[in-house]
C-alpha cells in the first residue's frame, strides 16, 4: 500500500461510470475514516483521522494517481507511449490539482505568470517525476509505466499505464483528464501522428510548465522548434477536433470534455482562472486561497491557508470542502450524487465488473469463500472450476451463470444454520 490507502475503480467503458466509480471510492474511504474515528473516540484516544485525496504528504513524500487505459496490442505501442508524453507534460495547465510550493520550490521557480502568488503552481505531481517512459514505478517515477500487465487477453490487449497525473477532486478535472486520453488513444490507433511534437527534455519541460501559471513556459522540441505549454495543448485539441469531425461518434460527456478543454485554455490564456473555477481543480483551489488571503490580509505562508488546501482534498463530507462546494454550486457535478452512491455496490453494467460483482454479491449472501482478482473467479472449496474472464468488455458469460447456479445448489446441500 506504500504507507497510504488506495482504491481502484472497476473496469469502465463509459465516462459516466468512471466518474461515478471514482467518487464511490472516495465515499468508501470517507466511511472507513468515520468508523475509525468513532472507534478512537470510544477508546478515549484524542485526535482524529483525515483522509486526503492528494499526492504529497507533509514530509514531501509523493504518491500517484494511476490511470489505466486498455489499448490494442500492436507494434506501435512504444511509439504511442513516447508521443503521448508532450500531452502528459502539458495537460497539467488544465487538470492539475493546484499546489502551494515549499519555500525551496518557490525559489527554484520564482515566476508564476500573472495569476498572483509565486508559490502557487499547477500540479502536485510534476516535480516528483524523473523519467518519461520506463518500466519502473517508484525508483524512476516515469510519466508512463510500461510494465506489460494488461489484466486481459495479452494477445489482444496491452495496458497504457499513466502515473503522472494528480489526484483530482473536481469531476470536471477527472472527466477532462480521462476523456482527452481516450480520444488521443483512439486518434493514434486510427493512424494519427503526434511524433512531430516530441519534447527534447520532458522532465525539464514538466517542471517549467508546472511553475509558470501563464501557460507560456517555452518548451524545446526534439527538432529544435519551441512551443509554449498553451500552444502544445491547443495543437492536441485541434487535432482531436479534426479527428472527431470525421466518422467518430462521441458521447455527450466527450463533447463536454472538449468544450472544457477549450475553455480551460482560454482561462489560462486570459489569466482568468475564475472562468473554469467551478470545473477544474487548480482554478477552484486558486480562487479559494486568493479570496481567503484577500479577506484575511495574509499570504500563502499562513498555516490557515495550508489547512484550507488540505480541506479541499479531504474526502470527508463533513470535514472536506468538495461536497459543500458542489451543494453550493461552486463545483460542477457531471454525475449526480445518487449515481455515485449507487456505484459503491453496483458495478458498471457493460464490463466484466458486472459478472464479478454478481458472483461476489451472491457469495456473500451464501457465505461462500471466494478468491477473486481482475480476471479470475474461484470458489475456495473447489466445487467449480476457475472462471477466467479475459475480455473486460464482456458482461455476459455462460460459465459465470453456471458458477452462480452451482453456488445455489451447493448452498441447499448445507446443514441448517451453516
TrEMBL record:
Task: State the UniProt keywords alphabetically.
Answer: ATP-binding, Ligase, Magnesium, Metal-binding, Nucleotide-binding, Proteasome, Ubl conjugation pathway
Extract the Pfam families matched here: Pup_ligase
Q: What is its EC number?
A: 6.3.1.19
What are the GO cellular component annotations? proteasome complex
Question: Per its record, what are the GO molecular function terms?
Answer: ATP binding; ligase activity, forming carbon-nitrogen bonds; metal ion binding
| Biological process terms in GO annotation | modification-dependent protein catabolic process; proteasomal protein catabolic process; protein pupylation
Stored PANTHER family: PUP DEAMIDASE/DEPUPYLASE, PUP--PROTEIN LIGASE
Record-given protein name: Pup--protein ligase
Organism the protein comes from: Actinomyces naeslundii (strain ATCC 12104 / DSM 43013 / CCUG 2238 / JCM 8349 / NCTC 10301 / Howell 279)
Amino acid at each position: 500500500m506504500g504507507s497510504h490507502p488506495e482504491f481502484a475503480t472497476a473496469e469502465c467503458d463509459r465516462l459516466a461510470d468512471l466518474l461515478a466509480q471514482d467518487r464511490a471510492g472516495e465515499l468508501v474511504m470517507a466511511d472507513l475514516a468515520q468508523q475509525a474515528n468513532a472507534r478512537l473516540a470510544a477508546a478515549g484516544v484524542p485526535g482524529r483521522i483525515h483522509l486526503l485525496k492528494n499526492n504529497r504528504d507533509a514530509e514531501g513524500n509523493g504518491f500517484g494517481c494511476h490511470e489505466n487505459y486498455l489499448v490494442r496490442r500492436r507494434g506501435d505501442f512504444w511509439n504511442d507511449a513516447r508521443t503521448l508524453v508532450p500531452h502528459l507534460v502539458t495537460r497539467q495547465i488544465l487538470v492539475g490539482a493546484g499546489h502551494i510550493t515549499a519555500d525551496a520550490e518557490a525559489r527554484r521557480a520564482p515566476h508564476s505568470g500573472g495569476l498572483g502568488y509565486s508559490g502557487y503552481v499547477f500540479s502536485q505531481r510534476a516535480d516528483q517525476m524523473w523519467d518519461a517512459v520506463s518500466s519502473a514505478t517508484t525508483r524512476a517515477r516515469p510519466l508512463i509505466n510500461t510494465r506489460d500487465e494488461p489484466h486481459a487477453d495479452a494477445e489482444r490487449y496491452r495496458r497504457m499505464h499513466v502515473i503522472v497525473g494528480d489526484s483530482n477532486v473536481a469531476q470536471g478535472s477527472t472527466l477532462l483528464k480521462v476523456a482527452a486520453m481516450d480520444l488521443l488513444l483512439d486518434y493514434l490507433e486510427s493512424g494519427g501522428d503526434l511524433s512531430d511534437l516530441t519534447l527534447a527534455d520532458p522532465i525539464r519541460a514538466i517542471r517549467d510548465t508546472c511553475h509558470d501559471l501563464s501557460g507560456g513556459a517555452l518548451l524545446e522540441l526534439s527538432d529544435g522548434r519551441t512551443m509554449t505549454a498553451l500552444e502544445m495543448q491547443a495543437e492536441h485539441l485541434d487535432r482531436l477536433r479534426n479527428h472527431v469531425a470525421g466518422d467518430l461518434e462521441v458521447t455527450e460527456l466527450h463533447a463536454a470534455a472538449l468544450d472544457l478543454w477549450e475553455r480551460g485554455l482560454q482561462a489560462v490564456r486570459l489569466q482568468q482562472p475564475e472562468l473554469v473555477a467551478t470545473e477544474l481543480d487548480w482554478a477552484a483551489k486558486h480562487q479559494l486561497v486568493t479570496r481567503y488571503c484577500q479577506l484575511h490580509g495574509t499570504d500563502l505562508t499562513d498555516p490557515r491557508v495550508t489547512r484550507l488546501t488540505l480541506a479541499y482534498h479531504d474526502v470527508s463530507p463533513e470535514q472536506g470542502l468538495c461536497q459543500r462546494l458542489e451543494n453550493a454550486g461552486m463545483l460542477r457535478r457531471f454525475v449526480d450524487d445518487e449515481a455515485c452512491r449507487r456505484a459503491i455496490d453496483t458495478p458498471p453494467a457493460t464490463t466484466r465488473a458486472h459478472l464479478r460483482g454478481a458472483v461476489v454479491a451472491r457469495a456473500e449472501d451464501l457465505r461462500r469463500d471466494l478468491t477473486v482478482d481482475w480476471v479470475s473467479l474461484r470458489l475456495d472449496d473447489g466445487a467449480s472450476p476457475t472462471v477466467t474472464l479475459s475480455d473486460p468488455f464482456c458482461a455476459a458469460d455462460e460459465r459465470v451463470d453456471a458458477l452462480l447456479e452451482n453456488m445455489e445448489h451447493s448452498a441447499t446441500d448445507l446443514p441448517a444454520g451453516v
